[in-house]
Sequence to fold (161 residues):
Amino acid sequence: MDLIENWSKIRTHFRTSLRGNLHVAIASVCEDGTPTVSSVGSLFLNDNQTGFYFEKYVTKLPKNATDRAQICVLGVNSSKLFWLRSLFKGRFDRYPAVRLYGTLGVKRDATEKEKARLKRMVRSTSWLKGNKYMWSDMPYVREVSFHKAEKINLGKMTTGL
Fold:
């Protein structure tokens, strides 16, 4: 899967995945060489094969970013309707899952534009008490740059993609 050619579709896929699952899985490697997976609910993909996430609740990724900055992000479209339609048709019209391979960048203060993107993402829950607890104080982001993408193959169901 060509990263640059398919970037628009990849961004759409990850937006859809985050809407349904409320997170993506980011795999990294710990100091002792063991893999670990972090659940991140605030990954945003930019126009240029880069992105960022708000770094507040993750603990392993910042530690691993220093010496082993390579990551793999998995976004799965878990919508039951999407899966039922696809199973009925015998094929997927869109990717059921995509892996992005990238490198963690610097941790820095979030810009006002980035904070606004987060606010838009969580606005549907703005009236809930937990929204304030979870997302009112998100001062830092970590940049990510991507260099490779893979669609997940599910046999004949993904042949046309």
Remarks:
- The chain has five helices and seven strands.
- The chain has one domain: 7-110+140-152.
- The domain at 7-110+140-152 is CATH 2.30.110.10 (Pnp Oxidase; Chain A).
- The mean pLDDT is 93.
